[in-house]
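User: Predict the complex with DGJ.
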Amino acid sequence: MRKLTLSFILIIIGASSFCQQKQLELQTMQEIILEMKNTALVLSIEENKDVNMIYFGNKLSNPSEYKAMSKQYNQGHDYTNMYQSAFTASGTRNLLEPAISVIHSDGNQSLDLKYQAHETKQINANQKETIVKLKDQIYPFEVELHYLISIEENLIEQWSVIRHKEKNVVKLSKFASANLSLKSPQFYLRSFHGDWFQEMQPSNEKLTHGIKVLDSKLGTRTNLFQSSYFALGLNNEIEENKGTVLLGGLDYSGNFKVEFEKDPQQNLRIIAGINNYASEYFLKPNEDFITPKFSFTISFHGLGDASRNYHNWARKYRIVNGMGERYTLLNNWESTYFNFDEKKIHQLLENTKELGVDLFLLDDGWFGNKYPRNADTSALGDWEENKLKLPNGIISIVKDAKDVGVKFGIWVEPEMVSPKSELYEKHPKWVVKQPNRDEYYFRNQLILDLTNPDVQEYVYSILDNLLSKNPGLAYIKWDCNAVIYNAHSQTLNHQGNFYVEYTKGLYKVLDRFRAKYPDLPMMLCSGGGGRIDYGALPYFTEYWPSDNTDPLDRIFMQYENSLFFPAIGSANHVTTVGKQDLKFKIDVAAMGKMGFDLNLEELNQKEVNYAKSAVQEYNLIKDIVWHGDQYRLANPRELNHACIAYISKDKSQAVMFNYLTEYSQVSNTPNPIKWFGLDPNKNYQVGEIFIKELRNPIYENLILSGDFLMKIGLNPMLYNGRRSVVLQLKAIN
Ligand code: DGJ
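Assistant: Here is the predicted structure with DGJ placed in the model:
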């Protein structure tokens, strides 16, 4: 018995030293090093031509030392030598979650991707793209891994291109964009779930073994329940101004899946891509399957720094006219709903002018004749002006707006169709539905089948006709209120391709639209914030965070959105919702792109005067909010107040938005709020804004140095009678 045990131990020792030997044999042949301003991602090409991701973190001063790294990790053996694969293929050696799974044209399900070549192209002074080519040894099947780095912003966009030259169709059953491998003793995930009216609710958890999945199967409006954007604390829980934090998300408006798997070596694998749910994709020979981009950035100075990476990158590359201007506006949705006519619109145009905002936005309800759009039960698809409401057409409103001296924009929901519409009667085959099952509606509507080129043509022509007939139209709000039920195209050959082709169809229409109308301001709305992602945002100038416009709820949502999306994109409207006074509402809307959605006639003269002066003051600070650096100085989920500040790039001006978020008679801000990001050597004059004829400023002639503000701080003196305070800082030297 004793002998047996001993020999068993010896066998184990033998086996483990064999494994170690095998591991040692697999020496790295070469590293592919992607270096940004402060960070580096390193891939290794192993002797057996596997490509692994061996590092993502702080950039080293001496790149030749990346090689030395693996010896410092004593993590036990990897049976496959591919736990850290840069793109895990399935059906051969893999033991962990794959990034790609295929069924070859002969029915075989194996794939083993080996290094072929790589190249790096300079895209512009700040961006480089590295392409790593992988190929199966048996089948004519290849994958390219693309890494586009933005050096200043420390941000990587990663995607894959999948193609083959097999005799027949290959079925892709999984097709990720990215497969990361991260090393850290612990991983803390913050993800964002929600629903209509309650978007971007954070949840925090420490990742354990098994797979944590963030996904959507909704087809459209895919962020309704879950966003693909997440924050990950490495080593420690996520903190705003210190620690290592990775931010990432799939830049895609269709179904997504982001998987977090702790591997047997305690490392974290992240596999992100289009959701393969009900989507076995038929890929023809010589066709490219191009996955969406997975964007991610890492900071060693906390969440705030990582967010600023995203904001800077988005303004430069990912939002239409991100470095430019925006229109402030008056919208009529919450003040009229479907109930308006030309007279009412004229009054709203006059209100727009009086308020001093740039544009009037006419919302839902202006179209449909056989089935007028007087409720959300009809007319989507019938995009002609309703003759009773607008007898003289949009063209006369555009003219009226011009005469009044404001701009005019309009709401559309081009992807949708009402069962009660002429469009549905004419084109029943254009609708997404199961032919042999009952229809099932979301907000009383169905989706048009954008996989069908005829439908793509139709959707494009709706917008093109609207703008060609009314060249003075200055703004579009593009809404999308339904998810996809009964996913099925009546014209597509392979239903497994449906979800992927739908989103491709949507982007095709948007591409064509933007090619003709590159600069037109357009709001991305999806029954609230159901589609806020960097797949859609390159076509839009701004997004609508939520139909919930209660300013208290909005503070939280705008705060959470700001982790990933810059303030210039956040359409924040002042409405009648919420018990707070007008000042509080305006203060909340002003920390983004301000708008109004209320009936001026319902305000008293003092309120109207106040709103007008606030618009004028906003015009003086909006540049700092839209183009400056954002610092979240107080988190309302940790404290009884929120504070978000914006500092101009040259650090000469700043604005600090402060809100008491706790309802209590005794709440206040006993401590000063510490600043970050100011110039310690500058002196700043502190003044309160948005208080005209309301109250006296809290600070008069106060001058404090950046050093003091960052070491001691500034107290906005919030209490129950002063629930919101906006302070402006101006450098005087
Ligand atoms: C949902 C949007 O989020 C609202 O702002 C409004 O445009 C309605 N749709 C109109 O139906």
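DSSP finds twelve helices and 35 strands in the chain.
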